[in-house]
Amino acid sequence: MDGIKNRRGGWMGLALSAAIGAAGVTMLASGDAHASKANDTLNIAWEREQPTLDYYFQNSREGIIINRHVWDCLLWLDPASGEFKGLLAKSYKVVDDKTFEFEIREGVKFHDGTTLTVDDVVGTIAFLTKEGTGILQNQPVAWIDRAEATGPNTVRIYAKDTTPLALLYLSADIPIYPMAYYNKVGAEGMGVKPIGTGPYKVTTVEPGKRIVFEKNADYFKDSPKGQPKIGKIVQRTIPDVNTQIVELASGNLDWIFKVPADQAEKLETLPNLVVKPASTMRIGYMTFDAAGRSGENPFQKLEVRQAVAHAIDRPAIADNIVRGGSTVVHSACYPEQFGCTQDVTKYDYDPKKAKELLAKAGYPDGFKTEIYAYRDRNFLEPIIGYLSAIGIKTDLRFGKYAATRDAIRSSKVPFAFMTWGSGSVPDVDAITAVFFGGGPDDTSMDAEVQKWLAEGAGTMDSAVRKAAYAKALGKIADQAYWVPLFTYPTNYAMTKDLNWTPTADEIPRFFTASWQ
């Protein structure tokens, strides 16, 4: 695939060069354009307006970020050590595979000054498990049967069935609400004036424009999150990434993320900015209708799927198109997730072998197929080119994510380029089981793989889980049910005054940030 290593920039990059250049001149002329450090105010931006700040009634990345700062969960998963620690719970124990007990900390205050009690914990769980609430955060709570107070400061949560991800959900996706306040104002009130126990409290909400967070001076001292150091965070909603970049370059912003690779390279040249590329849990992959759900198709044949795997030069795409530290993936999971092994069959770039496999499958001259996708045409274009080089001609059906997903679930798609971020859950149950566990997204319907995944999901024993998942991932690779492609990095750009480190889950924790 000649020329792939020279793909850079484009019209957007040229347009931004002038804007960033002008911003750079302004900065150099005026010295340090970022006054945020002096004002102890971190100015950040993201693209999407939040329809509500009530965590349970949204499903966006930005909502997850807000959740981590405004509220606390019972547990905390240390992103550095991977260890569960008590957060609103002073301690916890796994009584059995379906029972979890928590000792609630005493003296923790909500932002309105009221004290956290076991009633808030039990009440939050009762609300989440009630029929007809309309919450959008369903998966993280669907496993819960009920909660009950077992003492003045102790709570037990009971699962409907063994749920290996229970502690993960309790550490990230089930923030505890002040139930007296919530019962009074409801989701609408919490959506515009959220109250939590977290390290930052919301003081201003201008829908579609900005949210102001101020340091919680009363945040409990022994929180494993640590104490917030920056006094104020001002979040602005700026839908256009080019505008974000110019605002950052001119000193009106201190932090942005999801910066395109070409623009990140230009921002690196400015003296007062730092660009930090970081791996994320999102991976790209090719998926096939190996089960023939869409009707008879070439991808039901193993040799055809293997041919596709050998046809694509994944390192070239990762290094020269995706960039930002993107790495090749060999398994149907993100390498750092629990249970994910890369010790599986690997398919090197070998177009000659790919053509031989197609001939063996009965397609010496190749064939034509529809290919579905919903994002990243610039990543997809070289993939289509590689496929064309071995004789597979594609008719691209490009649409929105929901429509593409629904087409796959409705058995209309023979072949697709998709991505998955696992909801930032560091466990293979959040990806491999979704696409190979027999559910609506399973396009291979391999009973043996489904059995192994069920074994892994049916116990809290980590050794048993790892062994079961290794078998499943091994067969998925052997049968080339997927062609895992590469990891998606995120480029963060920020003022050099900011001391902040990204994590693979794409959740910026500004309560760990400080000024240099």
Task: Explain what you see.
This protein has 516 residues and is α+β, with helices and mostly antiparallel strands. It is built from 16 helices and 18 strands. A hairpin with a 2-residue loop joins strand 6 and strand 7 (154-159). It is globular, with a radius of gyration of 24 Å. Residues 5-15 and 22-33 have low confidence and may be disordered.
Q: Helices and strands in order, then pairings?
A:
Layout: H1 11-30, H2 36-39, E1 41-46, H3 61-70, E2 75-77, E3 84-86, E4 89-96, E5 99-104, H4 118-128, E6 144-151, E7 154-159, H5 166-172, H6 179-192, E8 200-206, E9 210-215, E10 232-237, H7 241-249, E11 255-256, H8 261-267, E12 273-288, H9 302-311, H10 314-322, H11 351-360, E13 367-373, H12 377-389, E14 392-398, H13 401-409, E15 415-420, H14 432-436, H15 447-457, H16 462-478, E16 482-495, E17 498-499, E18 514-515
Parallel strand pairs: 1-10, 13-14, 13-15
Antiparallel strand pairs: 2-3, 4-5, 5-7, 6-7, 8-9, 9-10, 11-16, 12-15, 12-16, 17-18
Helix pairs in contact: 1-7, 1-8, 9-11, 15-16
Instruction: Order the strands across the largest sheet as they lie in space.
Output: 11-16-12-15-13-14
Our count of helices gives 16
How many β strands by DSSP?
A: 18
Could you tell me how far the N terminus lies from the C terminus, measured between alpha carbons in angstroms?
Answer: 45 Å
Q: Proportion of β residues?
A: 15-25%
Low-confidence stretches: 5-15, 22-33
Could you estimate the helical fraction of the residues in percent?
Answer: 25-40%
Q: What average pLDDT do the residues reach? A: 92
Q: Which class of secondary structure composition applies to the elements?
A: alpha+beta
Query: Which of globular, elongated, flat, extended, rod-shaped describes the shape?
Result: globular
Major pleated sheet: 6 strands, mixed
Radius of gyration: 24 Å
